[in-house]
């Protein structure tokens, strides 16, 4: 589908309507520990493709990683740096009004800022791209409505269950229509 006038520009003109979303559960448990979402957006030289993991409150970042990009080694390529990626763990995704607020700071992240990670020196455009992609996918044009429904399901809200078609996914992987916030055909492991 076409992306028109987004609040957070991910630098691509179109996105898919269906996404594969992953639920992380402990063996033998039905409790969802994390939800893992595919994310992408433009940096300086490339589109960064990765995954954002959220704890089961769906408001706390459990991790952010990129599996494909062509950013400059030593600059924007530092999105692969283990220490930089570790800064995302435990940060809040949304502010108190429910707006996506996670970001890459310009320079060091301010002490006590639960939304920011350190900026990457010499990689301003890549940092802006990472901020935009995290906020876009967490927002109303990305997974925001989906995450609201999943949160209701995880907290046992009966009205949310009534809105959802039945699903029989045992592998912890489902495909969701991002726009209609409904399950699609279950996929294999």
Description:
By secondary structure, the chain is an alpha+beta fold. 20% of the residues lie in helices and 25% in strands. It is built from four helices and eight strands, in the order E-E-E-E-H-E-E-H-H-H-E-E. The protein has a six-stranded antiparallel sheet with strand order 4-3-2-1-7-8. Strand 3 and strand 4 form a beta hairpin. The radius of gyration is 17 Å and the shape is globular. The two termini are 27 Å apart. Mean pLDDT is 87; it is low at 160-171.
Defining traits:
189 residues; alpha+beta; six-stranded antiparallel β-sheet; single chain; 25% strand
List the helices and strands and how they pair.
Blueprint: E1 18-25, E2 32-42, E3 47-55, E4 61-68, H1 82-86, E5 103-104, E6 116-117, H2 124-138, H3 144-154, H4 158-163, E7 173-177, E8 182-183
Parallel strand pairs: 5-6
Antiparallel strand pairs: 1-2, 1-7, 2-3, 3-4, 7-8
Task: Bin the helical content.
Answer: 10-25%
Radius of gyration: 17 Å
Binned strand content: 15-25%
Mean pLDDT reading: 87
Biggest sheet, open or closed, and with what strands and sense?
6 strands, antiparallel
Short description:
Helices cover about 20% and strands about 25% of the residues. The protein contains four helices and eight strands.
């Amino acid at each position: 589908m076409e992306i028109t006038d987004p609040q957070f520009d991910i630098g691509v003109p179109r996105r898919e309507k269906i996404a594969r979303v992953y639920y992380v559960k402990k063996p033998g448990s039905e409790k969802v520990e994390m939800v893992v979402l595919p994310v992408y957006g433009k940096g300086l030289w490339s589109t960064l493709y990765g995954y954002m993991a959220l704890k089961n409150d769906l408001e706390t970042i459990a991790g952010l990683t990129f599996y494909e990009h062509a950013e400059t080694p030593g600059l924007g390529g530092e999105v692969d740096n283990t220490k930089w990626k570790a800064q995302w763990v435990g940060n809040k995704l949304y502010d108190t009004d429910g707006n996506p607020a996670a970001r890459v700071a310009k320079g060091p992240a301010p002490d006590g800022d639960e939304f920011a990670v350190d900026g990457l020196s010499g990689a301003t455009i890549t940092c802006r791209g990472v901020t935009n992609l995290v906020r876009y996918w967490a927002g109303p044009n990305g997974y925001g409505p989906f995450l609201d429904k999943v949160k209701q399901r995880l907290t046992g809200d009966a009205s949310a269950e009534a809105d959802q078609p039945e699903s029989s996914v045992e592998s912890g992987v489902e495909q969701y229509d991002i726009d209609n916030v409904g399950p699609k055909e279950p996929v294999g492991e």
